[in-house]
## 1
Amino acid sequence: MGEAEVDAAWLEGVIRHFVASPANTMKNVGNEPAWDEPIVGYSNGADPLYDFYKRDIGGFFRTPIEFMKHTYPSLGLKPQQLTVISWILPQTKATKTDNRKETKWPSERWARTRIFGEEMNNELRRHVVNALISKGVEAVAPMLSPLWDRAISEKYGFASTWSERHAAYAAGLGTFGLCDGLITSKGKAHRAGSVIANLIIPSTRRPYRDHHAYCLFYAKGTCGICIKRCPAGAITERGHNKKKCSAYLQTTHAYVETRYGFKGYGCGLCQVGVPCESRIPAGI
């Protein structure tokens, strides 16, 4: 094991260096970066939240130890030996400014980050895994594992066997809003990623107990601006209707290809033009 050489500072350096590299591009004329500077957090593989997710979301949800045992079946690993490394990739100022002006369709920059930015996020997942393996530390990216799949939760509807946002919540990076987006110190206009590793890094402190702590609607009974921002009527005071949201996203494929000239989709209108766009809202 090269665990002695691998600590939080080293991992954050690996992630930040990659995000600062040419790989971070939305593939437009100017090769603008898809993402702003990341934030990183950690949770332990034995954190009770992961077993809670399995009970609450559905038995199909996979815990960190399940992903690692599937990838490294001969190691005899235990949950407490594992660390989940989570990161948030915030949208750039230019992307948020563009999308804030929209009322029905995604801006070009937003659509590009949804496709090419997520391609880069996958490259980052692979990069972190390979960097750890080069130090003798076994690792797996859940979203790139054969165990990752979509599923239907009896309680929540559309779901999957791993959730980057739920891992980020466990790592102290943010809490959920009315539209189901994760509100972080950089706001909720972002994408998330994670890698599970066979090493122990101290978990990031969770500065909240309520999973809605950073949402003004839930915490203060105010705001609700994301309701008005949603062109699909998928957000109400009762929460986020995933079916309506998904159905609307399907209609954006044709718009993006016709308007911007590449195959893509997106929306994100509920993530901008709101108090939690780029920070934890004032008053929380």
## 2
Amino acid sequence: MTAYAAFSSRAFRYQLTAVTLSMFSQQMLSTVVGWDLYLATRSPVVLGNVGLVQIIPVLLFTFAAGHVADRYPRRQTSMLMQVAQTVVGIALALAAGRGLGVALIYTCLFLVATARAFQWPATSAMLPQTVAPEHLTNAISWSGSARELATVGGPALAGILIATWGSEAVYIVQAACCALSAGCFYLMHIPGAATQMRPETGLKAVAEGLRFVWREKVILSALSLDLLAVFFGGATALLPIFAEDILHTGATGLGWLRAAPAIGAGLMAVAIAHRPSIRNAGIVLLISVAAFGAATIGFAFSTVAWLSFAMLFLTGAFDSISVVLRISLVQSRTPDELRGRVSAVNGLFISASNQWGAVESGLAAKWMGTVPSVAFGGAATIVVVVLIGIWSATLRRWKN
């Protein structure tokens, strides 16, 4: 198998483009709202509450979204959710000229998070349908690379646009990316999509994904590791404070700080795509998450821009290893009729770690100070790795 085997599938190429554009728009939106909110309020709690606003739709709709992904055409669901995000982006662009209040930004973020809650399981469950089984890990690696490439470009471009033309330009470009992503989903043709099984309705069917994850202890351990590590170790929500008050790099510097983890993650994902599968996957997963925590501590204490960038670069590289291993584990061990619901559970773990982690970062920064809170989070991540490594023998023994 070549490093580019997944690209032989037309459906995969369209999905890869659609997901990349979607992630590009997501990162641009996260960067611009964080900047607008901090300049308007100078409050780390307001920044942290961005995560709270975005986790509520995930908690409300995750299991229903997984059921929708298994019961209805996944391509159409993904397309409609991108159309909805396009509309929200246009509304933000129109309102930006008259000034964006905290309430309006929170409302729009809630709507976007709702759309993403439904899109994530549909898009994730589609991936194994676009490539042959033997190319799945390769497709996951390239998908990770493309998403991280977008995560590099999104914040960097957002920072440049903010500095040059203001926030309104970012919202316009973000909406355009969503519209193009919807077009790519529209043009996709998924082999075998017409035979997608439709599960029974009812609460039992909706919750089947959660029961499956609970039964598969190695999946549960891997998801729990990611949930707790990112909850404590994420510093993204506080980057506007580092850019403005600690490193003094302004909006452009903020864009590059947000892009640094993505550069590291993208390069690491490309490296993984060009090498054979990782054999001792469980041990490698634990080591990579511990290294993520150590790099977070290094970032917390850095007072120069280049070192901060380097530490964030390393957090992205180590996180990319865990992401590729975790997604490969979930996709390879889940039957197709459950992929939407299991992907929804996976998405719940990811969103909970990212968004609740943002809330935790904001509150911890208020109580402890910005630098101590980030350093504490990195140390807590390492403790989590040790505890889960001791508790989960199945994870330690997992071979990819």
## 3
Amino acid sequence: MSLTNTVKQLTQKPALRKQKHSLEIRDLSVRYTNHFACRNISLDVPKNQITAILGPSGCGKSSFLQAINRITDHLPDCKTEGQIFFENKNILDKKTDLISLRKKIACVFQKPSPFPFSIYKNFAIPLKEHGVKSKSTVLEIIEHHLKLVGLWHEVNHRLDSSALQLSGGQQQRLIIARALALKPEILLMDEPCSALDPISTRKIEEIILDLKSQYTIIIVTHNIAQAKRISDFAALFWQRDNCGYLHFQDESESFFNAPGDALCESYIQGHQG
């Protein structure tokens, strides 16, 4: 064994060595025509923890997140390279069943996107696609998951009303509940609070913290204070030569309080980015 490898083993944190991972990402690159949004990203995502993806605009955070459940497949001139291991399989393989994948790896976007139907149909439509047709079962699932996000008592008397009549914060909680109704294992969240007021943001953060015992959560956020409040693990993306890359990663306590990296510390303090 080389001296370099010996030093790496001695300095590696025990908690990280023993950590179980939901995802193992290796040399992931997302390219649009001849431009790389992000390149050669390698990251292990801890199971049943909250991983925050931080960094300035334009460093590939959203492209990275969208690649995880193959949303990038639907983007014009977009090509994804590398490997993403989930349940011991590379999900970037062409043979991957995307419907099954997106059931297990759900995504919540920056802007709430309820279907332009009733609250009930927002659940019934995707559930029907996955074989749940009994109205009584659908109602049980709706109640359970709306309670998970603290929305049941606000809307249980108007399930036949349009979901578009809900406030922005309520719509985002509805979207989270709808995603969870399909029983995913991983929840991807891309700036889920950026369009919300402080009260709604606090509610979403509380929901995220409550959910981590059941789900692995990856959240892209520009809000450093939010990432510090809710994350267990954090990764800083940066840009070099007009291409995003993973600059630094660590457990959140060290990442935010004693990163041992000059650029990371400067970003956290608001001096860069």
